[in-house]
Specification:
107 residues; mainly alpha
């Protein structure tokens, strides 16, 4: 019992430190979350999971969608005229998320 109590106390003390590593939730997360989920786990078929993707990859991909280098009209419309700072916040947010296994689809 004593070991369990010590372990629980240790985890309780560590939680604020773990939360401090998480970037702040981006202001522009809403539209992205509609398809990719707030934590980067896809909400609709065909939308990729973004949780845990490399920061540099996400940052470049978002800029490429915005600038038209990646010609995906839905993504370009969703991103619109977003600043580099906003794109960076989104990339940081999704790269910091932990991927989770998804339950198989029900027939």
């Amino acid at each position: 019992m004593r070991t369990v109590l010590i372990a629980a106390l240790g985890l309780t003390c560590a939680m604020p430190a773990l939360a401090a590593d998480m970037p702040p939730k981006p202001v522009r997360l809403g539209l992205c979350a509609a398809c990719h989920g707030e934590t980067g786990m896809s909400q609709i078929p065909g939308a990729p999971n973004l949780a845990g993707q490399r920061l540099d990859y996400l940052r470049k991909a978002l800029k490429d969608y915005r600038d038209g280098s990646r010609d995906v009209p839905l993504m370009r419309a969703a991103i619109g005229p977003v600043s580099d700072a906003d794109l960076d916040q989104l990339a940081r947010w999704y790269s910091a998320q932990t991927p989770q296994t998804q339950a198989p689809a029900q027939p």
